[in-house]
Amino acid sequence: MRLSSRVTGLLNIKYPIIQAGMAGSTTPELVATVSNAGGLGTIGAGYFSPHRLEQEITYVQELTDLPYAVNLFVPSEKLYIPEKVEHMNAWLRPYRRAFNIEEPVVNMTEKQQFEDAIEIIIDKGVPIVSFTFGIPEQDIIERLKARHITLIGTATTIEEAIANEHAGMDVVIAQGSEAGGHRGAFSENTSQLTPLIGTMSLVPQMVDHVNISVIAAGGIMDGRGLVASMALGAEGIQMGTAFLTSDESGASELYKDAISQSEETDTVVTNVFTGKPARGIDNEFIHKMKEYDDEIPDYPIQNQLTSAIRKAAANVGNAQWTHLWSGQSPRLAQHISAWTLVENIIKEANELLND
Amino acid sequence: MRLSSRVTGLLNIKYPIIQAGMAGSTTPELVATVSNAGGLGTIGAGYFSPHRLEQEITYVQELTDLPYAVNLFVPSEKLYIPEKVEHMNAWLRPYRRAFNIEEPVVNMTEKQQFEDAIEIIIDKGVPIVSFTFGIPEQDIIERLKARHITLIGTATTIEEAIANEHAGMDVVIAQGSEAGGHRGAFSENTSQLTPLIGTMSLVPQMVDHVNISVIAAGGIMDGRGLVASMALGAEGIQMGTAFLTSDESGASELYKDAISQSEETDTVVTNVFTGKPARGIDNEFIHKMKEYDDEIPDYPIQNQLTSAIRKAAANVGNAQWTHLWSGQSPRLAQHISAWTLVENIIKEANELLND
């Protein structure tokens, strides 16, 4: 086995290590550090306004000449059901009151925002784009490919991987059940039904069914995980949690500490924060909201309804009322520079391969 | 990396491949074939009467001179609640009627059966015993160790692995969430609460926290999985589903075909068949019984209540009313000899390591 692969050539990177999008927690420093260390940094643009996206890309371009990616959330047709929003607002009232927060006005501009992001990506010459929550429409894929932008899709099942390949993605992330944060699933996707296939099962079955490069994600934190993923047939790895606790990450100290202090059994998959299932450390907000499991408004509505509450809670050091996305390997999380993390992984992987 | 390890020396086997207990589906031929091929065959004795256990051990000893193991279910204190059993019998009536099956008399002799099994294991000179559902009492462990019997425990969390090590187990199976059949969990263990940590997360965290040999289980079907597991720090692998579809397995053709025809998303974790959570292919019985999720009698009661129904269903080719344990990698299942399976895995692993 070798650490260089088709995908390192395709993405023009030295090491097959991708830093996951992690919307809300990436910084230009993190993205550039990972890319400068030889991996692929990713701007987590899922929640960005066009203006913010433009700024972040500019900043990253100032910090690195090497390839980096932008991760986007693919919009889907979702219904705004006023009654559901009213109910949720009533349940969220105690939290808003605690922080003196106004009820937000929900916007349904997700699709417009996505299209604006595509324009910015083309204008700014972004070399690589990754997608979560689905596959963009064919005309968008063709526009990006015409500009020689490399496309990375996300799949939680073999069927989703095949759909990504058919749509023209160059690379597909196999997101195993261990992964922290949002499930990338787009075939079925409620908290009860979202596919949760472990990385050990998902990767080899996916590799057997698609010809494009497969990147393993979920539970991978170190050189052991990199070599294991390559053995399963992946050409590289994507890591979120491992980079989330790094020095350059935008996650708060509260958030980083919550991960470091947690155990492998502490996470659950829940849709109560954003309306889409995501893996995070269990806390009071999840427990309280579990009652209304069937009545949570869809993403992006629920995300907008809870966003200010989560920010306010994090600001005052309240880990019980904010999301704490984490994968199932928190015992392997380290508070070190993303640069050192990449270096250590490659060193450990090479030692394993040469042992 | 090398395929020989501390554990191959400890178990006195050539290859670090353990065939999982798979109560109900192992045959002496399967056990002996795996051992003769250089791995470790395991008699799945979980449901055996003392007489049956004695017979199976004798038969295996006739078929191989090499080490093999016996897998036992560790009994736990469970309550027989007459009301719960009455309700379940009412819900099961339509199934019994369909097959002309009498209501069974539930026996609570699990503990006695376990103690008898320990005597037989000592008398017959069984070299290795593995345990599922917990850790036996200290006096039993000491009696087995005094006879130089090697002990293998099962853990689904780091805490359970540490408990196994403290109790004196020589080896611990890290059972990842991908694994088919019963969850070995003994800390928390209801369908809702049973820990489901993916193999990619579980193995390296476990290796970091215990000094005894860790064996990876869950989703592993081929040489790729073996090398991946070794990279994560495991000293070997345990496979159930991969051996279940082998020629020598005792599983019915119905059962084997159900696995071969299924996809990675087709399994669920359910307690409706036996009273303990187990991963199997979703079917009508699971759907119907899901309604009574909170009212399923504990193992071994529910197991006894549904056992004859499941056997009768399997006999008439009804895959909807019987258990179909399977892990999350059914696309990798093969109908080949267990001997060839072991040989292929070692060949593929060596090719990967030398590539």
Alpha-carbon Rg of chain A, integer: 19 Å
Q: So what's the CATH class of chain A?
A: Alpha Beta
| Percentage beta strand of chain A | 5-15%
Question: What is the H level of CATH, i.e. the homologous superfamily of chain A?
Answer: Aldolase class I
Order of helices and strands of chain A: HEHEHEHHEHEHEEHEHEHHEEHHH
Mean pLDDT metric of chain A: 96
What does this structure look like?
The structure is a homodimer. The first copy, chain A, is α/β, with parallel strands linked by helices and about 350 residues long. Chain A is about 45% helix and about 15% strand. Chain A has 14 helices and eleven strands. Chain A has helices at about 5-10, 30-35, 50-65, 80-100, 110-125, 140-145, 160-165, 200-210, 225-230, 240-245, 255-260, 285-290, 300-315, 340-355, and strands at about 15-20, 40-45, 70-75, 130, 150-155, 170-175, 180, 215, 235-240, 265-270, 280. In chain A, the strands form two sheets. The first copy, chain A, has an eight-stranded parallel sheet. In chain A, helix 2 runs parallel beside helix 3, helix 4 (about 80-100) runs parallel beside helix 13 and helix 9 packs across helix 14. The longest helix of chain A is centred in the first third of the chain and has 18 residues, at about 80-100. The radius of gyration of chain A is 19 Å and the shape is globular. The mean pLDDT of chain A is about 95. The interface of A and B includes residues 208, 218 and 231 of A.
